[in-house]
Amino acid sequence: xxxxxxxxxxxxxxxxxxxxxxxxxxxxxxxxxxxxxxxxxxxxxxxxxxxxxxxxxxxxxxxxxxxxxxxxxxxxxxxxxxxxxxxxxxxxxxxxxxxxxxxxxxxxxxxxxxxxxxxxxxxxxxxxxxxxxxx
Length: 135
Ligand SMILES: [Zn+2]
Known about the structure:
Blueprint: E1 16-20, H1 33-37, E2 41-45, H2 58-70, E3 79-80, E4 91-96, E5 101-107, E6 110-113, E7 116-118, E8 122-127
Antiparallel strand pairs: 1-2, 3-8, 4-5, 4-8, 5-6, 6-7
Bound molecules: zinc ion.
Zinc ion (ZN) binds next to loops.
């Protein structure tokens, strides 16, 4: 029963749930949906626990949650170089076998850091995040 149409968690892709504050768990079935929506609450991911702040109106928390999922803010997952390599000359975030993280690029099977070729063993990479929006 999901009357809120919550987007999936932007971080782990799992289901999220509305939680109410100041509302006993036993009263959920008793209170009408309209009344419930006017209560304070937040949205929380059931798996990774990321959540919105508490809003006086749960509908605002729901809007926030769904907006965030739609705004292109998604979890950055490491991609194994065994699975996929970045495009040539695409600057990406890379992680070495020693768990050091850099930004670098792959040019014809060689990793480059600041235009210098580089011999560390890169195990994972991910696209660069988007720059901040606006001023
Ligand atoms: Zn999550």
